Each structure stands twice: as C-alpha cells, then as structure tokens.
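Q: Hi! First time doing this. I have a protein sequence and I read that you can turn it into a structure. Is that right? Here it is:
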Amino acid sequence: MQTLAIEGERHGIRVNCLAPSAATQMTQGVLTETSLRLLDPALVSPGLLALVGDDAPTRSILCAGAGHFSTHALRCRRGRQIGATEDAGEQVIAHWQEISDPTDEITPAYGFTQVERELQSAGIGSADIVAQR
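A: Yes, that's right. Below is the predicted 3D structure, encoded as structure tokens:
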C-alpha cells in the first residue's frame, strides 16, 4: 500500500484501504443478534466517501463498523535479522516477540524505507543499497 500510494501520488492517484467490520454469513451464530444488527454493512459504506473524493487522503486505513470510524496507522518496527537459514520459519516464530517489539518503531516517509531497513539489518551500508547509474 505504501509504495503504491507513493508511486500513484505523482499521477494524482490515492491509495487507501477500508477495513470493515460487518455482519456476514461467517458471523452468524458467533455474534449476538444485537451485535449483528449493529454491524449492518450499510454502516460501513459511508466511510468510502472519505477515501475516494478529490480531497481524500492517501496511505490511509479506515476501520469502520457499527457506525464507528477510526484510522489505523502502519508502523515499521526494528525487527530481527534471521537470515537464510534452513530453519528461518521456525526462527521467525521463536523470535516473534522481538520481531513485533514496538520500540523504535517509525512511520515510513517513503516506500523504500522497509527495504533499506532490511538490507541494513543484513549488513549492507546505506551507500551500497542503490546501484550507481
């Protein structure tokens, strides 16, 4: 989403996400009848107006349900270098707490921030990330 928004911005394209909470067949029998009534999908769709107009934001996630609207922020966390080991999947599981630790989290200013952090964590210096032309 971040990279799409940044690339689209120069062409006047906005990229947003609607994260709905609405009653569906999957929620039948799980939620109470009162909850299901309040989670009418029609109460989600007004949020779309804020995401698609000429004055709409970009890189926004709008959570919507039961007539309640809030934005959700994506943050990039420091994480942990695992490497290309055979047990990398197990290492990700074992170090999940460290990987998801919010200490020193940032809001990326541009889409390449994630790639820069990943390469720097792997030992690549900032000057060696982008090929010289």
